[in-house]
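Sample A.
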Amino acid sequence: MDYNAIEMRIKEEVKKFLQKYDGKVICFIKFGDKAIPGIISSITEVESLVWNRKLKTLLATYLKKIDKNEKVCIIAKGCDSRAILELMKENQVERDNIFIIGVCCEGMLNENNELFDACKRCKTKMPIIYDVLICEREEVESEEESSKELDQDLHVIEEMPPKEKLRYWMEMLGRCIACMACVEVCPMCYCKECVINNKDVGWFKKTSRKDMFFFHIIRAYHLAGRCIDCGVCEEVCPESIKLTLLYRKVNKDIKTLFGYEPGISKEKNPLLSYDIERDKEIEK
């Protein structure tokens, strides 16, 4: 892909948006020799916009910082579009107030110029929803690895005896230092107050390995059928906790039970809806 050409096209679309609306644009902007997420609101700021293969952060995360009644433009990779779709289903963004510039993605690269693991698993090189699409389909098509190969780490955990699984997760999740980085970068974590910061929760202590284990189990249930597997939580974790492994397992069970994939299925998350007839079928 010609990322310079893509960047120019994005800038053109952003200018059109700002000429038409008194709104904000969520994008990546220059910061020294790097690019960081930012919000611009004037045409004079458009030249600071950046697009390349080092932009792993999800811009969709920053939608929770903007009033859903404001007019906003966002640059969306496939993972961003999956998050936006779920946020729409949960009434966190108004579709009429969000202008989506969809950009096809070959996968983002880490500091060693290697694909992130989540990018290797990605099923949406093309955005799910958009108002303007910037890409050529053939540019992003590649030979897919089998899901078994991509989920080999998950299969290893699934094959463990119950007691060994418990020991694995107690050790893994017990390393958490409660820095909240995973919560901050997650587009689906938009609660005004997280249970981890709720002073009324008397049983919870951030210094307790057991309590941190329970916090992550609570969060995994909270993200059931909602995690779009962007992998950013795992990338920012200072303790290298395999968070996506846990969320992928929960989502795998949701898919098995309900045939639902977050950010891909058009219907609402089955855990956020009540359907008597569907639930009767599942019970059988």
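Sample B, a different protein:
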Amino acid sequence: MIVAADVPPGTHPTIQVCGNAFLCTFNYDTLISSGIAIVLTLGIGLGVAYRLGHGKPGRLQMVLELLLGYIRNLTKEMVSDDAGFITPIAATIFIFVLLANWLDFLPLTKPVEPAAADINLTLAMAIAVIVIVQWYSIHVLGFRGYLRRFTKPFELPLIGRIFFTPLNIIEEIAKPLSLALRLFGNIFGGLVMVYLLTLGFTAFAGSSVLQTALSPIWVILLVAWKLFDVFLIGTIQAFIFMLLTIIYFGMAREGLEEHHGAAAHSNELRRETT
């Protein structure tokens, strides 16, 4: 059974836990939906980990091993061989977003909805990713090298690099915004389509007799759209969010070769003068 939309998308029931309306108001449908996805993600991970030592490998374990191997290879190619900590982060993001999107196909009613259809969740996830990326950039490049990264392209003279610095800062600020809006827009768009299909059915069907006659066709169209939107679009968006996370970690190392080269040249000059 597929539950059609009965209220306009983007309407979230809220709960206020303290006096400050901005800081203490929560969309509890998003909290419930994301909580379910978190529990499922932890359950899958802990269940597979338990079976590693207490049973035969199952299909789910093999799928997760293939996923981890793929992410591990992507991390080595796009970031570095010594950045293994990115693999569990990227895998957790993929599984969580995937399950959060797939919940929309189950015959669940409000307040359970796709968690990523709330910009608050996708923005929080994007900010968390970018904060870790900034930490990694400082850890790899040092604080001086981290600031130098905002003056790329490094082959330009100093005046040109100063001109590009504001653009690089804007690019860094835009990363979490684009990451959040891409996921939110695609999932929210799916809810809008379901709402429009519901409005179209009620508007064009007219009488209850005609609605009864056309309801099988409407259900088929709705199920077909849900299959396409949830399992194809939802999976692709989970993969894109994970892939961009890895790419951003790779971009956080920009200037590492030049930074090490400049440091080595400085040390060589220091040895020559002494």
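Observation for Sample B: The beta strands are 14-16, 25-27.
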